[in-house]
## 1
Amino acid sequence: MKSNAIILTGGYLNSNHAKTAHGLIRGSDRFTIRAIIDPTCASRDAGEVLDGKPRNIPVLKSLQDYFSSDQADAQYCIIGVATKGGIIPESLRATLKEALNHGLGLVNGLHEHVGDIPELADLAREKGLDIIDIRKPKKAKDLHFWSGKIGEVKCPTIAVLGTDCALGKRTTTRILTELMKGEGYSAEMVYTGQTGWMQGASYGFIFDSTLNDFVSGELEHAVVSCYHEGKPDIIFIEGQSALCNPSGPAGAEWIVSANATGVILQHDPVRKQYKDLEHYPAFIPPLEDIITMIKMYGATTLGIAVNTSKMSVEDAQDWSVTTSQKLGIPVVLPFDESVRKLIPVFEKLISSSKLKT
């Protein structure tokens, strides 16, 4: 059963800093979002702020406005923004204390753990409320080394990787999972970040809170568990960062350790340098080079998913057609009907995998 929740975005709802909130506004199988608390976008609908599509989620100015309303039925308060360094600033601590005093448990995906802040941890304990620190590392005894069990997985596994971070990989992964479910297939998403857990995916792990020695094993364990327990026709795996991003290269594990059948590559045609590294002389490689790199690791790039946040619809569609002709693979916009071009690609892989089992 879903729990009702409100989300704190601290004035950043209309920015990339609130991508956790954005994911939950688009949908969650774990929480029903009752309101967003954001003073800069108050009195609007959260969906309208996000992408122009109303979702009946009000944006309120303050927690007090929420608690004064006749719909104050949430059980949890979620931190929906990424702060600098993942730290919980004093201003946010005060808001979290207010939420606890009104009987809400806390859900936190930041690097700093709410449970490590004595004032908040003691108050939650006193009131019998949950603190869920999603990025709290697992104990060593609960971690997995890579074992080779990934060879037991016979269904297609599709890694959704990106040419950079903050491009919408998780959103595309969820869209593709729902797309194939809509076609009558059993599809599962393996999450690798905190928002994927908040959205209710059943299998996964938190990539950036896992000791490096165990990343490959945790990824393998998530995919193998998903395959044996969920018995899906196809698995989509959320990617992180990018193969060549100097601040956090990632992606090879998805292909090598998770033995991905294929890759959907998320790309922003407008972005030339890595996000927040514009001061550093590192440029995003051409798509052809990244596709070649993915092939060298052992996977095939099945299609390109386009981040259109800095493009007009017409420019994005024109770029997609031209690039698809150039590369010889589908190039789709995840939020429009063009994403359906990937259905026959996935169906072919599913049919092939069933012939082999």
## 2
Amino acid sequence: MPHTFLIRDPRRVVQGLAKHWPDCTWDEVGFEWLHRLFHGLAERDGAPPPVMFSEDLLDDPAGTARAYCAAVGIPFIAEALVWEAGDRREVSWYGEGTGPWHDNLRESTGIQRPTTGYAPLEDTPRRLEFYERSVPLFEDLLQYRFAPQPG
């Protein structure tokens, strides 16, 4: 199975870190390391690994999953994109909180766009710097993303 990269809009990444982990560092933002790892694997393997863009997954879960399965050579199973609401023991390692993340997970029945709101990056110059440094790395990775496949 090849390595796969799931990338998110750096604005959402940095805003989420600012809200939940206000003292994070540039290294912990992760885009520089992700970028290095991606290109190291592409050089080693002679081809870039599959890249999934989270917005594609949110906009078209089936098409994006179908494209991912094709990229890594596994069968697409449409039924895997829906599930019954309820507790998720598979994420218990994350902590048994009653916070919004776990509540949303328990209530979910499929892939859906998050409703989390964040403060503007401009409110914190350090976060704005992290975002601005992340954008070119993200854009480089984004050019390798696979497009959702129609059904």
